[in-house]
Design brief:
single chain; alpha+beta; five-stranded mixed β-sheet; 9 helices; 5 strands; 17% strand; globular
């Protein structure tokens, strides 16, 4: 428990103690936040192209790889909160609610799939998902387009908004540089693809049914290795089961 460790008499000079304890607090905050303790998979997870990874997530399989440094996620979460607050204030300043901010949506009933939409632009009828990316990810995004999982995620949100009665025509991914300037913002857009979202939901249903019958079914599921494998919490288990190493 971080509270106990902070109260301990950690040896060392003031600077060393402060650095050690602040880093521990940041890691503790990231691993104990509501977001990190979310149990049900969300649209950002079920849309991942690797069925094995989704199966492990649906089964809530214990992570087999050490947690990665949480700082990029912390920056992303903080940026989302700042953008939500600022866009809400911009709506108020404009005297109209052009943007719907942080809208909860139910994408599918059973198995339940719910999430929170970063932004919906009522003017352009566009659902927008913010991504805060490091330099390498931004370059890959610019060169190759958004990751399939990102596209699936934002289309799942579109389905949730459509179910709630909103008129959605486009999906968009707003990529903000984790280190850089607002001039680095890029916005990818496409027509809403309900069929893609339905395929993802169908796969999620099939995987959920399979996991209920056998929680370890992920070990036999199809793999789709990619750059994300480096950050997969089940990479070691996947390799042991004959997948990516
Ligand atoms: S390591 Fe890669 S291939 Fe294996 S489960 Fe994770 S994402 Fe899929």
């Amino acid at each position: 428990v971080v509270g106990v460790s902070i109260l301990d008499e950690t040896p060392g000079e003031a600077g060393d103690r402060i650095r050690h304890d602040l880093a521990r607090i940041a890691t503790w905050g990231a691993t104990t936040s509501t977001r990190s303790q979310q149990r049900a998979p969300g649209p950002s997870e079920v849309g991942h192209p690797c069925a094995r990874r989704v199966a492990y997530r649906v089964a809530n399989a214990p992570h087999t790889d050490p947690e990665f440094d949480p700082w990029p996620a912390i920056v992303g979460t903080a940026s989302h909160a700042w953008l939500a607050d600022t866009i809400t204030r911009a709506n108020a300043a404009a005297g109209r609610e052009r943007f719907l901010v942080e809208t909860p949506v139910l994408v599918h009933d059973a198995p339940r799939l719910a999430g929170t939409v970063d932004l919906y632009d009522t003017d352009t009828r566009t659902v927008i998902d913010h991504k805060v990316l490091g330099a390498a990810s931004l370059k890959a995004h610019t060169t190759h387009g958004p990751k399939p999982g990102y596209v699936a995620q934002v289309n799942l949100y579109a389905v949730g908004l459509l179910r709630a009665g909103h008129d959605v025509e486009h999906v968009a991914i707003a990529t903000w540089p984790r280190s850089g300037l607002t001039t680095g913002l890029r916005v990818w857009t496409a027509p809403v693809d309900v069929e893609l979202a339905c395929r993802v939901i169908d796969r999620y249903e099939r995987i959920t049914t399979a996991v209920r019958a056998d929680p370890d079914v992920g070990d036999h599921a199809t793999t789709t290795p990619g750059d994300d494998c480096s950050y997969c919490p089940w990479r070691t288990r996947c390799a042991t089961a004959g997948g990516a190493s």
